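User: tokens in, sequence out, please.
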């Protein structure tokens, strides 16, 4: 009976050792579902990193079975327009543009909100010497405000500022200046007197040039939020699982970005370098690496646990035979150990990504 128990234990241990890696391999090699994310900016921006770069680099999209490709739509309005015409699966936009689209009958809704602050302001170069709100009307009259694009989601905000100051659209123009160096040149040359974009764009200009901004906000913008993921009504109704998977990956990325801001900068810099050199290594590589680590570790821990259990039971029994009741005990120990090992090996792979 003891011999049969030993054989039974060995067979079960082998089934555990092969079943876990096989399941992991199947998961890792399963084809990823291609998804298109329409982003409101016209170029990669660190402010938007948690919505695509971070979940891509950390494998969060891949863990959900998704292969997400970004398309820079040069404005939230155009991003929603492309989404509504079925040229993307999700769009990163701002709430005011989304609400305006809904009022026009566009069948889209927000499925995720990632920023509790509005993340924007009217900014003036400090060299202009404008320090008080009362000075803005005379300063801006006859000039222009620079915006990312004429389909930017911040256009309504810029126009609201114009009317807030008692001016009209004839008094102040809106000029498309893009982001980064192009926007910085527009400010330095006086082509625009102010900018209305978003905080990450202002920070990037200040970091890359000698321009420093004075920031002006309105009282009525404080309850606003920003950074929404938008999906078509049809997608929400017919494919809620896709929405849940996409949102879950974004949520993980935002949590990671909040606690690891330096890592986000490295991911952003690395992504830009990878783009220049022909693209990054697929996140699927990380999944395969996890399988390899788990397979080797599971085999090793099973052998070690069998030896440890056998030796300890021999001492207790005073002989060389396994007691019959020992089989389920040792098997339970093996399964518990391999489960813990799988979690730890996933952690090793996560550290490799970083």
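Assistant: Sequence out:
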């Amino acid at each position: 009976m003891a011999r049969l128990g030993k054989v039974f234990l060995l067979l079960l241990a082998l089934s555990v050792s092969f079943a876990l890696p096989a399941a992991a391999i199947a998961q890792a090699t399963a084809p990823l579902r291609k998804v298109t994310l329409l982003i409101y900016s016209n170029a990669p921006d660190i402010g938007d990193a948690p919505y695509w770069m971070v979940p891509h680099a950390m494998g969060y999209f891949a863990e959900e079975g998704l292969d997400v490709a970004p398309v820079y739509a040069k404005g939230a309005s155009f991003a929603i327009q492309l989404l509504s015409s079925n040229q993307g699966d999700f769009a990163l936009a701002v709430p005011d543009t989304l609400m305006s689209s809904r009022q026009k009958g566009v069948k889209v809704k927000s499925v995720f909100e990632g920023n509790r602050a509005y993340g924007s302001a009217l900014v003036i170069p400090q060299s202009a010497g404008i320090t008080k709100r009362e000075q803005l009307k005379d300063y801006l009259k006859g000039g222009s405000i620079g915006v990312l694009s004429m389909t930017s989601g911040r256009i309504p905000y810029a126009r609201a500022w114009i009317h807030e100051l008692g001016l009209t659209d004839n008094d102040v123009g809106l000029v498309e200046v893009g982001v980064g160096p192009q926007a910085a040149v527009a400010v330095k040359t006086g082509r625009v007197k102010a900018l209305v974009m978003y905080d990450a764009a202002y920070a990037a200009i200040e970091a890359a040039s000698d321009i420093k901004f004075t920031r002006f906000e309105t009282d009525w913008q404080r309850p606003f939020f920003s950074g929404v993921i938008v999906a078509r009504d049809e997608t929400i109704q017919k494919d809620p699982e896709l929405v849940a998977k996409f949102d879950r990956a974004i949520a993980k990325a935002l949590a990671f970005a909040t606690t690891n801001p330096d890592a986000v900068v490295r991911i952003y810099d690395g992504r830009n370098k990878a783009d220049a050199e022909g693209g990054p290594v697929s996140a699927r590589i990380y999944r395969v690496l996890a399988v390899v680590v788990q397979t080797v570790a599971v085999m090793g821990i099973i052998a070690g646990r069998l030896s440890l259990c056998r030796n300890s039971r021999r001492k207790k029994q005073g002989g060389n035979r396994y007691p019959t009741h020992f089989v389920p005990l040792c098997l339970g120990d093996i399964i518990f150990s391999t489960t813990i090992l799988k979690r730890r090996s996933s952690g090793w792979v996560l550290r490799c990504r970083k």
